[in-house]
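Researcher: I'd like a structural prediction for the single chain below. Treat it as a standalone chain; there are no partners to consider.
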Amino acid sequence: MKYKGKLLAGIAGLAVLATGAVAEDLTIVHGSVGRDQEVLRGQLDRFEEETGHSVTIVSMPESTSDQFGQYRLWLSAQSSDIDVYRMDVIWAPQMAQHFVDLTEPMADIIDQFVPAAVESQTVDGKLVALPLFLGAPALYYRSDLLEKHGEDVPETWQEMTDTAQKIMDAERAEGNSDMYGFVFQGAAYEGLTCNAQEWVNSFGGGRIVELDGSIGINNPKAAEALNLAASWVGGIAPEGVLNYKEEDARGVFQSGNAVFMRNWNYAYALAAGDDSPVKDTFAVTTLPDGGEGTSSAATLGGWNLGVSEYSEHKDAAIELVRYLTNYDNQKERAIVTSRPPTLMAVYEDADVAEQQEFIPLWKPVVDNALPRPSAATLRKYNEVSSTFWTAVHSTLSGDGSAEDNLARLEAELTRLRGPRW
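Model: Treating it as a single chain, here is the predicted structure.
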């Protein structure tokens, strides 16, 4: 266990670097999937060599909902144990009071970042966190299987459903009893909010909560989208998809046992890795739309780094945040993990384009991604999201129709809103 520098000071004094600065012990809390933590540790090792500071990673579970709950406990207790938090794009309005305003410390570099990413982390003029990487999901598909069975890349959710069913049935008839048509994030957590928001919006069903704070989610288009999704469970998707998070879905697809997958950008580098059974047999496209007159919707994702107000090493923590978001580290992250960068210049880097084609390909999707309603619902977002994913999960599980569950959702959101959000 690493103890804070202040505890060691009373015993032997703090280490002093050649520059005269004090070497400090920092702690970063970091939830991750794929190769995120591996890349982070390598970057931290270089930071330690260059600065003399040391950094401990506190790992978090995969579920962003579980992460949020633990963060809230630490911050409400004003714990000094964590110096830097890796934060989901939606958390800034709910946690702003607990983080250092980075506006001044980052003033000399902030104009190099994607403006929308900066805006997402700015609350009442306060820069709550510095954007680390962005995200917008893709429809991954087995290009070899579509070619084998004479199918085109689907453009609508219904086409995806029909194509998935046809290829799944044909592959099973040939002896692959483990083949499924489609996998996604169907567990009752924040990931389901992201998936279901895409289904609803792409069918023309609006947003969970509209930009002006109004509630219109209880509508026929939203019900149509959720009813189609419910038909996947136990059909083209396994029953177990009701418990799938990102890595569960990737595991099935990357093992070669799914025709289609909805997942985030990180999965591309892993599926294309030398040890991947589907290397060179898959491709990606934008998520489908709901049909004529609708358009694809991809939820805006991404993670950011904030410095705790309760840190006893704020200056060193700010130094760490700047380091992890610098050009070289964002470039490495883009190439190794296929995470879209937040520095605009990295998208133009020739090495990135050559080694990770997904990054420049996906920039327009990231630029037009659909935010979750954290700005409209402010500190109530977590309750709003939980209420939404519960209604969706009930529908997917066969516990009530989409129409009934949306009616209950509308009533619960109205109660949560009260006179105002």
